[in-house]
Amino acid sequence: MIRVVTLEKIDPADxxxxxxxxxxxxxxxxxxxGDRPVPADVETEDGRLDAVKLLKDVAPVRTFADDxxxxxxxxxxxxxxxxxxxxxxxxxxxxxxxRAVITTAKLPARGVxxxxxxxxxxxxxxxAIHAVGHLWDLHHCYDAKCAMHPSWSQSLPxxxxxxxxxxxxxxxxxxxxxxxx
Length: 181
Ligand SMILES: [Zn+2]
Ligand SMILES: [Zn+2]
Hints:
- Helix content is about 35%, strand content about 15%.
- It is of the alpha/beta class.
- Strands 2-1-4-7-6 form a five-stranded mixed β-sheet, sandwiched between helices.
- The protein starts with a strand and ends with a helix.
- The chain binds zinc ion (2 copies).
- The site of one zinc ion has 8 residues, from helix 4.
- One zinc ion (ZN) binds next to helix 4.
């Protein structure tokens, strides 16, 4: 089961699109688990949210074995700097574990036209699939059409596809099957 928790207001129609798309990507039941407040003390000096701390401190939701929880925030996320500086952060997943967070801050403007809203929803879904993919042990993928292609990649088109490539899909299906047995 994938449980989606919002830490900002999101249009119910956007969330319905998101849960449907996550279900299609992983073949796992996906449901909304309500909203939670942004935990205190996770804000950085420049007004972003510390992604690692947020996943640690956020109010838990009821889960069962192998449930994956996806948190969605509106503020930009910050990650600890690595040797190459701080990585651009669309989201952060506790690799192979049960919690991930994504931000809507880097999505294209949602706008008010059918096309701009559609593009926004598809990009949100792509980042959600990407983050949940990491929770199912998927690594980054070279295929720019795959949701596991790095979100910061130069070769990612402006409106990227939101599906997993067949390799990543099969790998996630294998992991999910194993988890169920
Ligand atoms: Zn990634
Ligand atoms: Zn792939």
